[in-house]
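Cross-posted from the bioinformatics board.
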Amino acid sequence: MKVKLIVAVVIVVVVAVWAFSSFTKSMTSYVSFGEAQKRSQRVQVMGAIDHEKVIWDVDRKQLTFPITDTAGVTMLVRYTGTMPGNFGQATHAVCVGKYNGQIFEAEQLLIKCPSKYQGES
Amino acid sequence: MPIGNTLLAIACATAAIATVGYGMTIFGRNAFVSLARKAYYVFTAAVVLMCVYFLQQILNHNFSLIYVHDYSSRDLGLGFLISTFWAGQVGSFTLWLLLIAIIGVFLIRRESENHSAVMFFYMLVVSFFLTLLVAKSPFLRFSPEVLSQFPGGAPPDGQGLNPLLQNYWMVIHPPIVFIGFSLLAVPFALALGALARNNYRDWVKISFPWTAAASFFLGMGIFMGGYWAYETLGWGGYWAWDPVENTSLIPWLLNLALMHGLLIERSRGVFRRSNLMLAMFSFLLVIYGTFLTRSGVLADFSVHSFTDLGISGYLIFFMVFFVVLSVLLLAVRAKHAKTGADIKDPYSVDFAIVIGIFFLVLLSALTLVGTSAPLITRIFGEPSSVSSQFYNTTTLPMAIIIALLAGLSPFLVAKGQSFGDVIKRLWTPLALSFVATVLSIFFGVTNLLYLLMIFFACFALFGNIAAVYYQPGKVGLRIGGFVTHMGFGVMMIGIVVSSAFSKSEKINLYAGQEPVGAFQYKISYKGMAGDVTTKDNYARLEVDDHGERFQADPKLFIAKENQGVMRKPYIRKHLLYDLYLSPQDQQITGEGNQLVLSKGETGKIGDYGVTFSKFDMANHGEGGDVQVGAVLEVTRGSETKEVVPRMAFTRDGKQFIKADMPNGDGSITLRDIQADAGKVSLAFTGVPGMDVMDLLVLEVSKKPLINLVWLGVVMVCGGTFISYVRRRRLQAQQV
């Protein structure tokens, strides 16, 4: 009984330590724009999209647009890839990526639309 | 009082009677049991009628109801119209209540030693859903002031169903998932009932078929969701570790663990407390998942946008209530529920099952931690989510161990056997798995974890095939477990190969031009079938695969409901791989849409003449941004209009502020300024008469062995279904 318990505890501890390390490695913090501009690792930011200044470059498949956070700071976001389906209707964007000194390079773009279309599946 | 809310009120009243009536039996008062039973039947009838009435309101387009207005519209076909019943949060809770109520009818007719106590705890679950509906009724109407603004006294049409949900899976997938969730409430109530009465004699027997049925429905529901995503969303995958997906996976894994735990408790009379906990937590985590995905706490972390409807308080209250109740009961009875000595022989099947349960629980715990990351990290500082990388790296080793156990367990039959006995029977499946692994190295798999996964997944498959073959006597319905374990192996092979070796290329196709090559295919684009603004518009593609030609019709259109771009991939299925054509964008561009003009120069674009008259250096920008505009005279026939596209220089770089052409004929963007030469470069879009080129950006992917994923999951679920049938029969025989 004792041996089994020790083995079980050891396995749990090993898995926990290892899960913790991959947890911290794959973690993306939710930060303010000011904070995002200071950091070099991957972060997550959210802000309101300014639709007046959206640029969609089809040849390079680059979407560039300014977003403003609740503190009123505006930052330019560049996303390379397919324009998300509901982008035209989106009020806010959640961007996961890094700030490169000039522009926020988003690897992932998550669009927030007015709540009347809740996507549930 | 309107019919809907009246029926809801009747349901509440009768549910209250049933709850109190059954609850009093715990204190030894059995006088009200038959009343409670009758009350339950009335309650179910009221809920069924309420749902029929609700459905009727949807089918009759009663847009004075807020829910009906928000989720349906007149142009929906019957199938989608019915599916709007559960398209919104409130409606999905209504459906959930209906299923819980109907499942309760089967539970109430199944006599057991703890019957009344079980029904009491089941009624607590029922009350949870009723409370949600009372807090947020599906029969909420617009206020009379709003309604009086409309000529007919009600809005003429609804807002329609989210086009992403307009898919036949929407009709079938949510009800199946909710049946699975609802079924989990039964083992939960059975466990609490057994603890409350401190009587564990028949809880295993009664729980077995319910647990198997829950595995089947929840597994099928998860599978359908994944297949839906793969087949229609066009991002190429079937599983994204999204909170919504995870919160259905976690209870499923725990429920599978419970299935195995019940096997041991029945054969050896041990493991009871663990089973009670598994039964409790598979349902408690359904409630927790509901809280995570419906309260809005993860709104910024999930692609499914959730909003708080003001029910978070109820969700938190019930979650805490059920957790405290379960943990207290278990703590009070911990001593009594304890079972005898544990399993001593390490080469027995039961010992392997315990280890399997251990890893299934670890697997769900890891998924739970990842899904709850935003809440956990919030305690320590800024909320963070984890990327899918976390799940992939942590779950793969768990899956390897589970595959090993799934393959090994059928060979661990007799009690008191030795390691040598086990190995003797194992060499064929081991050799076959080894050959398959060597083959996959030959095909280019080099990652050690992938190789291990392939080896043990093959072992799970071949081991169980061999086990069925060597079974003494007739296998019959006992085959269920073997099929599930084979399916797990098949699924894991499919997952590893299809995700690690999926290849994808993005190509630009111009309508009517030469075919473009991607992999072995030559693809030509014949233009759109209609217009992107029309529903179900598709791109006409012709694909040449080594001389074999076929048409492909991936859909791409802008949905009128939300102006969102809808994509549906074209999938050509082969036995060993899928060709997956997903349209990304269509752009109307061309040679004629660029003009470079000096001051005073006139260029021609479509039907218009464009003259560059001067720069406009005015400082229009907010926050001190410098803006430069090009003042253009745009002429057609006798009409002339001044149009000024601008470019802003901000600290972040250039920004383009485009200007509209007259008469809504497209727009102009100022792309570049050569100030020293006094030239501007202009880009035009949508101007009639301009030389257009129709560009389609297409993603071409090849997904090897993806069919094994579907086959594997179907086998897993099919196996659980066979187990369900078997457990039902065994139960019937014992009565």
